[in-house]
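Hey L., structure's done. Input below.
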Amino acid sequence: MNKGLMVLPEFFIHSTKFSKLLEFCNKLTGSEKNRKVLYLFYNDGLKMYASDGCLEATFKLNQEVEAFLGTYALSIKTLKLFIEEAEDQPIEFTLSKEGIRVRQKTEILSVNNSPSKTIPQQSLFGILGEFQTNAFLAGLDFSTVHMPENEDCYLFVFDGILYVLTVYDKVFSLYNTQRKCKNLEVAVPYQSIRHLIKALRLLKTEQFRLGQSVSQDRIGFQTTGNLTSICSRSLETKEGERLLKLIHLYDHFQPVHQINREILKRSVTKAERISPSLPIKMTLEPDKIIFELKSSAFFYSCVDEIDSCNHLPVDQKQRDAQYRLMFYGKYLKSALSRMTTNEITIYKYENFMAFGDSTKNKLICLTDVV
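Output:
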């Protein structure tokens, strides 16, 4: 064939669909500029790929295109600016050895960046279980509350049920999915989990399938036309033992009181804003809750009247008891913002106190800081 008449691979994607895919990849890749890249390649059909270095996603695009070699890279930021005001119209992509050209109406974007010779490799995954997307993401969001970026989040199956746990700075957060899952005991990076939550919320899918790669170094989240996966590592023996102790602690927690979420959230938020560096001393009595901040030169106090909880299955001694806890408000404030129930249940076991919903699906345990 005459080289001048060679047909270049091209395809069309509607701007509305492509904008949604771009925003997903933008959330997934986080804030590092060198990660804000979208990749196009061909492997049993046209596919799109993005990654933050640990978390990665592959979309299968149902656009007809001639098979081509290599992977084309495009800046996510540049593409978002290029189509930001586009109406729902076809966007044309033309591929060549020199790079890629994107056209919409009277605008053309040409990127002279030869494709790399390799394409993103996709792991094979074994399915562990199926989960409701919104409920799982809400629980994942709750359990990864207020942690440094270099910490880990744990996915741990106990008695056939998947738990999500985090432990940091005398705070233990847990989400009980209450869904059956095959055996899994892994740690995943907190920062990439936050990217995962933001990205998957955009897909609007009711369910997803959770899987683990054959090499056991990635956890996959599969929906129709999309596979998102996150790097993972196996737990050290001490980590596994610690998580088992925390789940046993969780099982032993019993409800001792319930408080209106808005009352609790308002008082904790105000105390934390008045002096973020001071721990809050909380005293819970049958009909009131007291919050105090105290230092050598400072004192603040707030008293909220609360309803007695005669409906809870506790004896009279527990009902009349006084409970005290010293904690930093930022953790409980963040947890309360991620609970949607009207009432927050306070749980107790020995010297431990926790806050959660009535079903104990979401629970944060705060240990005395002094």
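Confidence is low (pLDDT under 50) at residues 1-5. The first strand starts at residue 10 and ends at 14.

-- N.
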